[in-house]
Amino acid sequence: MLAAGPLLAPDARISRALVRAVPDAITERLADLGNVEVAVPVLLLAMVYAGRRARRWRPALAAGLAMALVPALIVPLKEWTARPGPLEPWAAGYFPSGHTATSTVAYLGAALLVGPFARRPWPMAVALLLAGATAVGLVLRGFHWPLDVLASWLLCLPLLLGVGAVSRSTRGSSSRTPNLRTGPS
Hints:
The chain is an all-alpha fold. The protein has seven helices and no strands.
């Protein structure tokens, strides 16, 4: 059980200062952005849009694989650490945050897929806002410690770097491929 350690005291102090600082009705809605029923359909729509628009499915499939790896990565860590929640010291399995990981991979993955077609930074800005709002909601509501959220972000980074790498490699090769606008080289 890894429910103790040198970071627990600062994590608890920060959590005590933040929990319920904003009304529950607001923070619960923010935390709900990390629900599978909310975040995964956003990613699925982005996968279909990007795949059909680019006529290449590798980036979309990479994003889907990243999302499929979230529970495979998070659930064993939750069981191994058995960390209690800020408001439920009798319960275990709060570290790392599954809702944070779900929202991060879904929204940022969607932005990586849709971003090249927008030609503006708004998809990534919206994705960062949604993932950040989820994390803030989880901490302010007392569903997770701040370090639960931070750990999820760090665990998602390699997954998103993989999606980004596949997206860039596919775009790079597509510049040599004729399309309706450019025609043959």
